[in-house]
Fold this sequence. Notes:
Elements: E1 2-7, H1 10-25, E2 29-36, H2 40-46, E3 51-56, H3 61-82, E4 86-89, H4 92-101, E5 105-108, H5 115-121, E6 127-131, E7 142-145, H6 165-169, E8 177-182, H7 198-208, E9 213-218, E10 231-232, H8 240-246, E11 249-252, H9 256-264, E12 268-270, H10 281-288, E13 293-294, H11 298-310, H12 314-326, H13 332-341, E14 352-354
Parallel strand pairs: 1-2, 1-4, 2-3, 4-5, 5-6, 6-7, 8-9, 8-11, 9-10, 11-12, 12-13
Antiparallel strand pairs: 7-14
Helix pairs in contact: 1-2, 1-13, 3-4, 4-5, 7-11
Amino acid sequence: MRYVVFTNTPAHVHLYKHAVRRLQDRGHAVRVLGRDYGCTKALLEYYDLPYRIYGHCGTSQSSLFARLPKHYLRILRAVRRFDPDLLFGMGGYAAHAGLLSRTPVVLILDSEPTTLDHLVSKPFARAILTPHPFRKHLGDKHYEFSGFKETAYLHPDVYEPNDNVRSQLGVGPDERYVLLRFNAWGSHHDVGEGGFSPTQRRTFVDRLAEYATVFVSDEGGEFEFADSPARPFDLHPALLHDALAEAALLVADSQTTVTEAALLGTPSIRSNSWVGDDDMGNFVELADEGLVHNIAAFEEAVETAEAILEDPGAKATWRERRREYIESHVNLTDLIVDTAENLGSVSEFEQVESRVSGSESL
Length: 362
């Protein structure tokens, strides 16, 4: 059979990379349609996936919306030429490509605030798969699985750590280091939202540098390293998860990296404007499990980070919590492959449960 997979962001590459390889190994043809956004193209090349770039997008909302017409035109042409039996994606691009090419679509979604994407994509999906903490009900085609989209690549069955990452970072075997991850805030669902200010970023670096080596990964490329004790995280982006696994702490105003750290057993603090009573279900659950601190107030976030670094047993505690928590999660790569070979029909799978009701309907 023939499949098209959409990778619009770096996280999407990780989501599908193992499934693409497994489908190819089983004799299926796969085409990955990627958007040149952030390090997406670099990851596609690193994993040697069978990709074509349909367009470029900068880290701003205006960059995305200005390019939409050309993106759709190139996507439709590529899909029609490849003639797939099934499409995988996370929103409008995949759903509309499926509609116009008369191809069934499977959506894997994990973010409740992306309401626009839900509205324009769910009517055209054969199945919608979401993690079990997802707080919206997206109709009678909505199914949940036990886990997160990140369990497609961080589940113990598929994740193999790189034991050489410390030497590549230039840190000693016993040297503690912290990773600070700053979001570019350029996606369409980021409108009106935000994270750390430039001053707060610098304050975090200065305070945490008293406890450990500090690496900064700045998606927007705006952090000033001059006269700063921080070091840039300049390894290939494919090594980020290996660096996360070894870190003493992650502090981020981004989203996906926090979930990744939690599923690797690394203490993590998430601080941005999403934090609050209407927060996303995955972060609420991870906080309830003691794997993430969701903190809106800046000074509280800094003090919590310092407290974690002052606790010599913090890393071991998080790893044990992670080990116990992830045992009940599915290997999402298995589910993606099974769904592909079943042409998007998932209702009979033991790994999923129909979402006939939810805390919020859309």
